[in-house]
Amino acid sequence: MYAIIRDRGMQYRVEQGQVLTIDLVAHAEAGAELELGEVLLVSDGEKVTVGSPLVSGAIVRAEVLDHVKGDKIVVFRYRNKKRYRRRTGHRQRYTQIKINEITI
């Protein structure tokens, strides 16, 4: 059984027991339970339920495992012949969740 969910503009294909990395959910602490209600599609192997745009009554429950940081991205700005160089970095913050249950 799998479902396609939407979380703040991003779509994910999830299955029960899967560990997923999504954008930071700041209000959720580790061990908390999330309900992802924007379910676009649910398939249980033989029957596929497609929403228009959402499947009514479908909920995906997930447990927050941890908050992690992504890889560092180096941003380097340079102006030719002007002695202008700026090196900065960025690490995006993510939330790791584990999908516990998909209900229709």
TrEMBL record:
Give one GO biological process term. translation
Q: Supply one GO molecular-function term.
A: rRNA binding
List cellular component terms (GO): cytoplasm; ribonucleoprotein complex; ribosome
* Keywords associated with the record: Ribonucleoprotein, Ribosomal protein, RNA-binding, rRNA-binding
The record's InterPro entries line, in alphabetical order, gives: bL21-like, bL21-like_sf, Ribosomal_bL21, Ribosomal_bL21_CS
A Pfam entry, by short name: Ribosomal_L21p
In terms of NCBIfam families, this protein maps to: L21
Checking PANTHER family in the record gives:
50S RIBOSOMAL PROTEIN L21, LARGE RIBOSOMAL SUBUNIT PROTEIN BL21M
Q: How does it assemble?
A: Part of the 50S ribosomal subunit. Contacts protein L20.
Q: Family membership, please give it.
A: Belongs to the bacterial ribosomal protein bL21 family.
**What is the protein's known function?**
This protein binds to 23S rRNA in the presence of protein L20.
Protein name according to UniProt: Large ribosomal subunit protein bL21
**In the record, what lineage is assigned to the organism producing the protein?**
Bacteria, Bacillati, Chloroflexota, Chloroflexia, Chloroflexales
